[in-house]
Amino acid sequence: MINPSPIEIDRDKGNFSYETDYEFDAGVGLNEEVVKYISQVKGEDEWITDFRLKALNVFNRLPMPTHWASKDLENIHFEKIRYYLAKGQKPSRTWEEVPDEVKETFERLGIPEQERKFLAGVEAQFDSEAAYSRMKDNLEKEGVIFVGSTEGLKEYPEIFRKFFGKVIPTGDNKFAALNSAVFSGGSFIYVPPGVKVSQPLQAYFRINAENFGQFERTLIIADEGAEVTYMEGCTAPKFETSTLHSAVVELVALKGAKIQYITVQNWSNNVFNLVTKRGLAEEDAEIKWIDCNIGSRLTMKYPGVILNGRRARGEVLSIALANNGQHQDTGAKMIHRADETTSNIISKSISVGEGCATYRGQVHIPEHLKGCKNNTECDALLINTNSRTDTFPAITVRGDDNSVQHEASVSKVSAEQIFYMMQRGLSEGEAMSLSVNGFVNDLTKFFPMEYSVELKRLIELEMEGSVG
Prior knowledge:
- The chain is of the alpha/beta class.
- The protein has one domain (24-463).
- It has 11 helices and 24 strands.
- Strands 5, 6, 8, 9, 11, 12, 14, 16, 17, 19, 21 and 23 form a 12-stranded mixed β-sheet that branches.
- Strand 3 and strand 4 (129-135) form a beta hairpin.
- The two termini are 22 Å apart.
């Protein structure tokens, strides 16, 4: 028999909420007055207010996505969503200062323990604003900045404004425009030249309110030769009504810099998770997205890298698990803009019950470039007869001196394999979990140990009751 891990993860760990008195509430619905209210409450400069209002016009003008996977978006009623809720504007710097109900939320989710054990800094966002933000003193002395986006705009405008909205412009898509109009929370990180942050920085995003939209905006800049790893975790309680999460994440890796961005999401199945993530890699820089998507009603997320400098490298490693009533529409985008650039995409998906997993990817290498390489691998595992998986790779390669390789596979869990493991003493559910974890094992090794263990346990919990 296999000894169970000592780390306990409750299936409903994130399924709780607290009655909260909000000091700031923009009300229900979206219009210019709501956008102005958010900007006024935050005390923003006039240029940010103008930026928001222009984005609102773009949002109203742009159509909803029209491919078949987007049909479920018709269930989002923008006029019924609450776009801004906050208890206060300034995050606490010590754990004791955090409001009691917020503190209890993050203590229940284990944030203080993670901070003490293996993090260099942590930010905890509760609905629209960060409730807690802290970084180790030695990193501050090295010039590392790790604050919320609101603080970043106010305190470091010369750095923030230079790259803000440049990697993902407002008009990129309808939900990027929505975020640009009502964004609040998220992280701003700047790592000075040559500084290597050895421990991860983490942000945790928690939706507590019903009929709510969370719109954090994250900007990470690694200056020349700098290195940083950033991790985010996401949860929400299970309400009867739909909840919207629409974030924008921009990464900028300057010459020789390295950024690794890790996501483990476990949204409840009422959340529409519609996120735009993209990085810009300059000469000899590297950007790696490690993305794990479990939960949500619909996820549409395609992390990308613009390989803008010679010998730049981009990588997306993704895992998606779609259970009953869920659609994981995920993928990657790699845009080559310089010679000798390299991109790697490895996607693994598991479809359980009547769940649907979709890979949607784009790779573009123009004719004038030389020495560019891309590798794309898409592997899907079907658990039940009604499970569904689809793959839509769009790879455009021109020129004589560039190389691309692509492979895809779809497989079912082997009945003989399950039978054999059951003969060795495992239950059918344990055998199924072991098989699925073996399927994703070559990717989970890239996660920090704490996240890798949690991911495997989450998969075990999702597999309960999936057989038969």
